[in-house]
Amino acid sequence: MLDNDRCWQAICERDTDFDNHFVFAVRTTGIYCRPSCPARRPSRMNVDLFESAAKAEAAGFRACLRCAPNGQSLVEQMDTLVESACRLLDVPERITLEKLAARIGVSASHLARAFKTRMGVTPRQWAEHRRVQRLQAALPHARNVLDASLESGYSSTRGLYEKADALRPSQRRQRGLGETLHYTLAECPLGHLLMATSPRGVCALLFGDSPDALTRDLLTRFAAAQIVRDDANLRPWLDRVLGQLHEPARASGLPLDLRGTAFQIRVWQALQTIPPGETRTYAALAADLSTHPRAIARACASNAVGLLVPCHRVISSSGAMGGYRWGAERKVRLLRVEQTSPVREPQGSTQDQN
Question: What are the residue boundaries of the HTH araC/xylS-type domain, all occurrences included (predicted)?
Answer without folding.
Answer: 72-157
